[in-house]
Amino acid sequence: MSDLEAVLARTEVNLESSLETLFDLVRVPSISTDPAHAADCRKAAQLLADYLARLGFAASVRDTIGHPMVVAHHEGASPDCPHFLFYGHYDVQPVDPLQLWTHPPFEPAIREAANGAKIITGRGTCDDKAQLLTFIEAVRAYKEVRGNLPIRLTVIFEGEEECGSPSAKPFLEANKEELKADYVLVCDTGMWNEDTPSICAGLRGLVGEEIKIFAASHDLHSGGYGGIAANPLHIIGRIVAGLHDDNGRVTLPGFYDGVEETPADLKAVWDGLERGMPHILDRVGLSIPVGEKNRSMLELNWARPTAEVNGISGGYAGEGFKTVIPAEATAKVSFRLVHKQDPIKIRESFRAYVRSKVPADCRVEFVEHGAAPAVQMPFDAPILDKTKQALLGEWSNPAIVTGGGGSIPIVGDFRTILGMDALLVGWGQADDRGHSPNEKYNLSSFQKGTRAWVRIIDAISTP
Amino acid sequence: MSDLEAVLARTEVNLESSLETLFDLVRVPSISTDPAHAADCRKAAQLLADYLARLGFAASVRDTIGHPMVVAHHEGASPDCPHFLFYGHYDVQPVDPLQLWTHPPFEPAIREAANGAKIITGRGTCDDKAQLLTFIEAVRAYKEVRGNLPIRLTVIFEGEEECGSPSAKPFLEANKEELKADYVLVCDTGMWNEDTPSICAGLRGLVGEEIKIFAASHDLHSGGYGGIAANPLHIIGRIVAGLHDDNGRVTLPGFYDGVEETPADLKAVWDGLERGMPHILDRVGLSIPVGEKNRSMLELNWARPTAEVNGISGGYAGEGFKTVIPAEATAKVSFRLVHKQDPIKIRESFRAYVRSKVPADCRVEFVEHGAAPAVQMPFDAPILDKTKQALLGEWSNPAIVTGGGGSIPIVGDFRTILGMDALLVGWGQADDRGHSPNEKYNLSSFQKGTRAWVRIIDAISTP
């Protein structure tokens, strides 16, 4: 057995205890958007710091303006080992609507899916607790087999990925020296399919905005004030309806400034991928793409910006009916950004647009929920090739280089503040339901993902 | 002391016990739109039936397909007394948002308002529990002073006024003979101001519709499906935004069929009233009317139809942010109808409009929440004159004849099914907050309203 194979084999020996660690972590409802779960976020951070300390890291939980960061350091086997910063996040999405969960979200277990596959169920399994653990368990196997690591390693786990990472910038600014490494490694993305890994070369940015429209001084009876008094739900309706034109383009002035056309060859590759796969909307029960015309859904997801309303509330939402004109109403709106779109300009453009729709006797308040630019990785970085080679050891299909539809705001900050590019690989599957009820992670993703990290660490350990 | 004055004086002697009866009734949270309060609705009905029985009525609580009706009969002093049907409703509006209430909604008390006036606080005081009791307490005073009533009386109290009166039609159909009288009396409206009573000659109809839009099979991550998958909140936004044109008119095809122009002389009276009063929107913190252009707010409220969105919910509404594309979203929409608008045709037109806005891969479900036509009273009915004269005894300002912005669906059914016209007088004030937090009823409305009913009963007791 080669030395690498011994490390790979060790991950299998460790599986049971690796899952125990994962379950302990998933049991903590570390919902970062909900202040009621602040203590749970800290608990998850402490649990990870303690675990890293047991593996030989110098690990600590570090306060921020929001939820704490976990920072840990480990020396390499020799002083000239390459130095990597591994990033993950321990916070998770809210779980509502809770009644749609088949199993309690914070009681993880191995279960059998309808297709017979073994899955790990629970909120945060796929996003991002099991994913980050595949890397840590690869590190653990190295330590247990060799007693050291072939790379120098800094680990950072944040607790605000799901709420726009407000603490990331100040924390990175304040700890530049400590966190600087050669390259960032991230495990928060997915595979192309179960047999084909994927390396993500771009990540969309994100701007989150909450608008509260205030009209009358109190809720009104629609029999007395209907057709007379401003209705904040009508105002929100007009704001929402005007965000897109009939061709699916976002109407905000300047919105497409900095958006680059996808290179023709890449577009051709993506078009080919899309033709060779089942219709993307099939798996969610839909069939008609709603976005910009004449673009593949892969391009829309990987290289085009969006505006989406994530929530509206106002007026009577209970059983039955109430003929009320509410005094206020709220909408949450988010924008996914690509390339060089400026999140601050887009926020300003959106706010100006909203203000233009609010009558003079009403009032609007804005609440900011994060603003991060997109990140685009260079396609010719040597680490990309090394990683592709390493992945060929675990899956026979070659890895596909893609864009990423989602956003990891801190990855933009790594680039902006610390000058580091990031390698994004992950083992999530299309049906993992990352932000939805019944989130899961395939047991095979956990096992093969851990092994893949062993291979990647080996491949990138030589300069 | 004349015989009438003895009855009037009796209402003052009775005040304390009248208020006890009212408080007992307000303490019952008879919220008809919420199935959780079904038992409370029955309790309120039983309480009223018991009280009427103690006053000498043959009273009973009668089952319906929904909340029960109270029906009670009392003979007149002689067989040729005119026969009236008095109508009120014991159900109340929901109380949310509860945190805006200064006093618990179901713990009624006499309190002092900011202007020094004595007010009765609690949900349902103004709409309609104290109002209906002013009539019953007038009846009680007659009984206690004379031992009989100068009119023959049937009383009906329903428990579904706030949820569209679904049981009214079948109940009236099934009990036509029993409920038929010469005229209906209703106490569920307001005064022009504290010194000027008002008689309502028209009531708008009401169509309530709930629409549920279903898109993806589950909530989606906006990073994965934004700009690709249909967002039901966008669909609802477009539906809401398209309901009105830039001139405040409702866009539904056929919506204005059956709407009559206000006669020029009446319009002139109403315009004069509006010029002589503070700006209607002042009292709710607004200043710009939103409805049809070039019409007074009084005309908009009394003689024009409306479309109002009463609630929207969908996506994430909690603290913070969640980048979700919800699988479904809901809107509650109501229409106030005037003159001969056909509620069924308007419902159909709205549903066709909504369907036209829903993409082929999404689905819409409709939930019906009542449909009632408007009612218009004849301006030359002798009972109108008698009532005006009677009211002059209680207030020195002559009563104003108005339209009514609100809707009392069952009053339409009295006309359609039982062939009866209705006299609508009430003692509510503009600041009573009928469907809002901190509902109240002026103690003076309760006292003078009871006395006014004594006078009206006297005036209409002769054919």
Give an overview of the whole structure.
- Two copies of one chain form a homodimer.
- Chain A is α+β, with helices and mostly antiparallel strands.
- Chain A has two domains: 3-204 and 376-460, Zn peptidases (Aminopeptidase), CATH 3.40.630.10; 205-259 and 305-372, 2-Layer Sandwich (Alpha-Beta Plaits).
- Helix content of chain A is 35%, strand content 22%.
- Chain A is built from 14 helices and 18 strands.
- Chain A has helices at 3-13, 15-26, 38-54, 125-146, 168-174, 176-179, 222-225, 232-241, 264-275, 297-303, 343-357, 382-392, 409-418, 443-460, and strands at 58-62, 69-74, 83-89, 109-112, 118-121, 152-158, 183-186, 198-203, 205-214, 220-221, 306-315, 324-325, 328-337, 363-372, 375-376, 400-404, 422-425, 440-442.
- In chain A, strands 1, 2, 3, 6, 7, 8, 15, 16 and 17 form a nine-stranded mixed β-sheet that branches. Chain A has a four-stranded antiparallel β-sheet with strand order 11-13-9-14.
- In chain A, helix 2 packs antiparallel against helix 4 and helix 5 (168-174) runs parallel beside helix 13 (409-418).
- The radius of gyration of chain A is 23 Å and the shape is globular.
- Chain A starts with a helix and ends with a helix.
- In chain A, 55% of the residues are buried.
- Strand 11 (306-315) of chain A pairs antiparallel with strand 11 (306-315) of chain B, so a sheet runs across the interface.
